[in-house]
Specification:
Layout: H1 2-17, H2 20-40, E1 46-51, H3 57-68, E2 72-76, H4 80-89, E3 94-97, H5 102-107, E4 115-118, H6 122-152, H7 156-167, H8 184-190, H9 196-213, H10 215-223, H11 226-232, H12 237-267, H13 274-298, H14 302-319, H15 331-337, H16 341-354, H17 363-390
Helix pairs in contact: 1-12, 2-9, 2-12, 3-6, 6-7, 9-12, 9-13, 9-14, 9-16, 10-13, 10-14, 12-13, 12-17, 13-16, 13-17, 16-17
Length: 391
């Protein structure tokens, strides 16, 4: 048993000693989690730059209205020129310029222009609609006073204060809304933390990718004569095979465990029910390790194994929903994705994290992952034993 553990430990040490693996094993997975979280995770607030005169009550009230709007965040900007530059460079989504004397113009019912700065995109268009509505709301009392003044042949400013008083007494129009149908996927995503969506999918992608790419280490073990020296030792064949297979499993568990711990500590990712998550991730690690074992025992060139590992790892991850959620796939592609372990693992984690599932809720996915593991372990160990015996 000690020799099996020693062989497995050597396989893990070889991975960690390769400096090129530091970025792809430890840094790159977290970068992708951050990028996915920045693009799709959590709630998204659009930044609206505001240039306004200080001490102007009406301007401050308008800014407060904008800031109180859901999904809008007000950012104070020095002047209109800086505002236009920030909008052009994409530092903020849009901008509003409130002129000097805005409060006096509102009070005296004098025409005043509030400038809006935005790019020709959907975000700026939606922000402009909101700002126009808020400005119109602030000007409603003045419009009413102007209309009444035209009928009474008097100054609108004299009726402005009366219009403000009546605005609070006259009942408004109630608008009833009815939502037809539900967007269950949108509700599930809305309930996630900013980085929850990408954490589990990237774990499966990189655990499988690292395991497949590590299959080249088995080829190097044969090419450099390490396998011959192990076979010449008192260690039986089954012990050597167990040690090499255990090394692949240690690599997969290390990669998965690192991503779980790092995302919890750095991003407060919610991994759901611990027992269910451990079962799903543990079985997927066995699948990934067995796949790497089979690849390394089948191919004879380590460069070929590295390229095939990357290609298969990325291709199966994309097909299995580790780059785009399975729910967004066409029905035909979703059927094909069932032939990948990634699809079952991602489906299980969606149940655990998005819908607060427990281990009983993911028993079908665990069963399929167990079947994947049994088949790949059997094929991988059989092929490795034949390769070592023939070598």
């Amino acid at each position: 048993m000690r020799r099996v553990v020693a062989i497995a430990g050597v396989e893990l040490t070889r991975l960690l000693r390769d400096r090129s693996n530091i970025f792809f094993v430890f840094v790159f997975p977290l970068l992708l989690v951050v990028l996915i979280g920045a693009q799709f995770g959590g709630s998204v607030e659009l930044r609206v730059g505001v240039v306004a005169p200080s001490g102007d009550e009406a301007a401050e009230a308008l800014i407060a209205d904008i800031d109180a709007t859901d999904s809008l965040e007000v950012v104070a900007v020095e002047n209109a020129e800086v505002l236009r530059d920030d909008v052009t460079r994409g530092l903020i989504s849009a901008g509003v310029v409130v002129p000097e004397g805005f409060d006096e113009a509102v009070s005296s019912v004098t025409p005043v222009e509030v400038a809006f700065v935005g790019r020709p995109d959907a975000s700026a268009t939606s922000i402009r609609t909101v700002v126009q509505a808020l400005v119109a709301e602030r000007a409603a009392a003045g419009d009413a006073a102007t209309l009444a003044a035209g009928q009474l042949d008097t100054d609108p400013a004299e009726l402005r204060e009366l219009a403000d008083e009546l605005a609070g007494e006259i009942p408004g129009i109630e608008v009833g809304t009815e939502t037809v149908g539900t967007d269950e996927l949108g509700e599930e995503f809305a309930g996630l933390g900013q980085f929850d969506l990408g954490a589990s999918s990237q774990l499966f992608l990189f655990t499988f990718l690292t395991s497949l790419a590590g299959g080249s280490a088995l080829i190097q073990t044969r090419r450099y004569g390490v396998a011959h020296r192990m076979l010449a030792s008192p260690t039986p064949m089954r012990g050597i095979v167990a040690g090499l297979a255990g090394g692949r499993l240690l690599v997969a568990l290390m990669q998965a465990g690192y991503i779980v711990v790092a995302t919890v500590l750095l991003f407060r990712v919610n991994w759901g029910d611990p027992l269910a998550t451990t079962a799903v991730i543990g079985l997927f690690c066995v699948v990934a390790a067995a796949a790497g074992l089979l690849l390394g025992a089948t191919l004879r060139n380590d460069s070929q194994a590295g390229g095939a590992g990357i290609g298969l790892g990325l291709g199966l991850a994309a097909l299995g929903g580790s780059m785009v959620p399975l729910e967004l796939f066409p029905e035909g592609i979703r059927v094909v994705s069932r032939f990948t372990p990634h699809a079952w693992a991602n489906e299980a984690m969606a149940e655990i994290v998005r819908r607060d599932g427990t281990i009983t809720d993911v028993l079908p996915q665990i069963g399929v992952l167990g079947a994947f593991a049994a088949v790949l372990v059997t094929l991988g160990t059989w092929r490795l034993q034949r390769t070592l015996s023939g070598g």
